[in-house]
C-alpha cells in the first residue's frame, strides 16, 4: 500500500474528526456568511505528483476553495428551488459515503430494502397508492426522463411497436401535450429520441395563469383522432407555482388515450399541508410522477424519486441483460429500473430525515416557507419601486421593477442583491416581462431572514420608485 494511503488509514478516525470539525464550523456560520461569492475562482493548478494526504488535502481545500463556495445550503439562498440539508439528512449522507453501498441490486446487503422502505414512505407522503412503484434517481430531469421513457414504451404498446428494441423512430410522430412544460421536458424528449419539436404547448387559462386550459387540452386530444399521446401536467410551475387541475386532466382519460406524466418536482410537497393539499388532488391518477427531493425535502444533492404505475414497461426499457446481473424477475433490482447500473444509496439521507422529523416536521417546513413567501410578497407589493407579477400561490415570489423593467435593469437588481451578500435570487421572464424569483424551500429560513431579504431589495439601486 502506498505509504501516504497507509498513513491515512491508520489515522482515519482522527481525519474524520478533523473533517467533522471543519464542516461544523462552515455550517454553523451559514446564517451570517455571504450567500453568494462573486470573486474569480483560483487559477486551476496542475495534478499533484506526490499526494499531500487527507489532512493536507483538507488544508488546501480550506484555503484555496472553501471561501468561494456559495451559501446555497443557508436560509437566504432563494435562487432556483434549492433546499438545504437537514441535520438528519447530513448524518445519513455521511453514512452513505462511509458504507459506500452500490444499490444496483439486493444481493449481499439490506441497502436496496431500505430504499424500498423509503420509497413506500414517500409514496404515502405524496398521497400515492400501492399501484405506484418508485426508485431514486439523481434529480427531476432524470425522473422526468425515466417517466417519459416509460411513456414512450407505453405508446409502443398501444401502437404494436416494441420501442426498446426497434427504437423511437418506429413509433412515427409522437404527440406530447403540455401547458407550461418545464425545460427538462424538452431535454428528456431530446435524450429519448422523440424530439424537442414534438412538444406542443396547449393554451393556458386566462388572467396570467400558467395552468393548462383543460377544454383546450381536450380539443387538442380530440384532434388526434384516437392516436395515443403523452400529456405532461404540472403540479407547481417554476415562475408562479401554478397547478393544472390534475383531477380534470385525468378525467379526460375516460375518453382519450394518453399517458399522464405529472411534474411535481417541488409542488408535490403541497400534499403535506392541509391548507394546500387540494392543489395536488388527482396526483394519484398519474401514470408517472416526478418529485425532486433535494428541493423541499431538504436532503443533500443529488436526490429525486420517480414513480410509475407500469413497472413492467419500466423494466422493459431499463433492464440490463447480462448473466452476472441476474434477470429482472419478481421484485426487480433497481439497476433494471433506472438508467444507472452503479447507484449511490441516495435513499439513506431521506430515510434519516423522514425518521427524524416525520410527516409533522416536514409539514412545518413547507408551511413556514409558504408563510414567508406570502410575507415577502406583501412587502414587495408595498414598495414603490417593485411590483408583483403574479399572486404568491405557494412558495415562490415572482416580481419585477415597477418602472422600465428591462432585462438589463432587472439583472442589475439581482446583481446588487447578490453583491450585498444578503440574498441570492434567480431571473426569469414571465408574461414577456423580465423578472426575479424568490423561492423559499430551505428548512433554516425564518421570518428574520425574510425581513433581511426585503431590506436588501428595498435598499438596492432602482427600487426606490
Automatic annotation (TrEMBL):
It holds the Pfam family Pyridoxal_deC. PROSITE patterns: DDC_GAD_HDC_YDC. Signal peptide: none annotated. InterPro entries: Aromatic_deC (IPR010977), PyrdxlP-dep_de-COase (IPR002129), PyrdxlP-dep_Trfase (IPR015424), PyrdxlP-dep_Trfase_major (IPR015421), PyrdxlP-dep_Trfase_small (IPR015422), Pyridoxal-P_BS (IPR021115). Keywords: Aminotransferase, Decarboxylase, Lyase, Pyridoxal phosphate, Transferase. One of its GO terms (molecular function) is transaminase activity. Its cofactor is pyridoxal 5'-phosphate. Belongs to the group II decarboxylase family. PANTHER family: GROUP II PYRIDOXAL-5-PHOSPHATE DECARBOXYLASE (PTHR11999), MIP05841P (PTHR11999:SF70). This is Aspartate aminotransferase family protein. It comes from Streptomyces asoensis.
Amino acid at each position: 500500500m502506498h505509504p501516504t494511503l497507509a498513513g491515512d488509514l491508520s489515522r482515519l478516525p482522527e481525519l474524520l474528526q478533523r473533517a467533522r470539525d471543519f464542516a461544523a464550523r462552515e455550517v454553523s456560520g451559514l446564517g451570517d456568511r455571504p450567500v453568494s461569492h462573486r470573486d474569480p475562482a483560483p487559477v486551476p493548478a496542475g495534478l499533484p505528483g506526490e499526494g499531500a494526504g487527507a489532512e493536507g488535502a483538507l488544508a488546501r481545500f480550506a484555503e484555496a476553495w472553501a471561501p468561494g463556495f456559495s451559501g446555497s445550503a443557508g436560509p437566504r439562498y432563494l435562487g432556483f428551488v434549492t433546499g438545504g440539508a437537514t441535520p438528519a439528512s447530513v448524518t445519513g449522507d455521511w453514512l452513505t459515503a462511509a458504507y459506500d453501498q452500490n444499490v444496483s441490486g439486493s444481493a449481499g446487503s439490506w441497502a436496496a430494502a431500505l430504499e424500498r422502505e423509503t420509497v413506500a414512505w414517500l409514496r404515502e407522503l405524496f398521497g400515492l397508492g400501492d399501484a405506484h412503484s418508485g426508485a431514486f434517481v439523481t434529480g427531476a430531469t432524470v425522473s422526468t426522463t425515466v417517466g417519459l421513457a416509460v411513456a414512450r414504451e407505453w405508446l409502443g404498446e398501444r401502437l404494436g411497436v416494441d420501442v426498446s428494441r426497434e427504437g423511437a423512430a418506429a413509433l412515427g410522430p409522437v404527440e406530447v401535450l403540455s401547458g407550461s412544460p418545464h425545460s427538462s421536458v424538452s431535454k428528456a424528449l431530446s435524450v429519448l429520441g422523440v424530439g424537442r419539436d414534438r412538444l406542443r404547448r396547449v393554451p393556458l387559462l386566462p388572467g396570467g395563469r400558467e395552468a393548462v386550459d383543460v377544454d383546450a387540452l381536450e380539443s387538442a386530444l380530440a384532434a388526434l383522432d384516437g392516436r395515443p399521446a403523452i400529456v405532461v401536467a404540472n403540479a407547481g410551475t417554476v415562475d408562479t407555482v401554478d397547478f393544472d387541475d390534475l383531477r380534470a386532466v385525468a378525467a379526460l382519460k375516460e375518453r382519450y388515450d394518453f399517458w399522464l406524466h405529472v411534474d411535481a418536482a417541488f409542488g408535490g410537497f403541497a400534499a403535506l399541508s392541509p391548507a394546500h393539499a387540494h392543489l395536488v388532488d388527482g396526483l394519484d391518477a398519474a401514470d408517472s410522477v416526478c418529485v425532486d427531493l433535494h428541493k423541499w425535502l431538504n436532503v443533500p444533492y443529488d436526490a429525486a424519486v420517480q414513480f410509475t404505475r407500469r413497472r413492467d414497461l419500466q423494466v422493459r426499457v431499463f433492464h440490463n441483460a447480462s448473466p452476472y446481473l441476474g434477470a429482472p424477475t419478481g421484485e426487480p433490482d433497481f439497476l433494471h429500473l433506472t438508467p444507472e447500473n452503479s447507484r449511490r444509496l441516495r435513499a439513506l439521507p431521506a430515510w434519516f430525515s423522514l425518521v427524524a422529523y416525520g410527516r409533522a416536521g416536514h409539514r412545518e417546513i413547507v408551511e413556514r416557507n409558504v408563510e414567508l413567501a406570502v410575507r415577502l410578497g406583501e412587502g414587495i407589493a408595498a414598495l414603490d419601486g417593485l411590483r408583483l407579477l403574479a399572486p404568491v400561490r405557494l412558495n415562490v415570489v415572482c416580481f419585477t421593477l415597477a418602472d422600465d423593467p428591462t432585462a438589463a435593469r432587472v439583472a442589475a437588481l439581482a446583481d446588487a442583491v447578490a453583491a450585498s451578500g444578503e440574498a441570492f435570487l434567480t431571473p426569469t421572464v414571465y408574461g414577456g416581462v423580465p423578472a426575479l424569483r424568490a423561492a423559499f424551500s430551505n428548512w433554516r429560513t425564518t421570518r428574520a431572514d425574510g425581513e433581511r431579504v426585503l431590506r436588501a431589495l428595498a435598499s438596492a439601486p432602482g427600487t426606490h420608485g
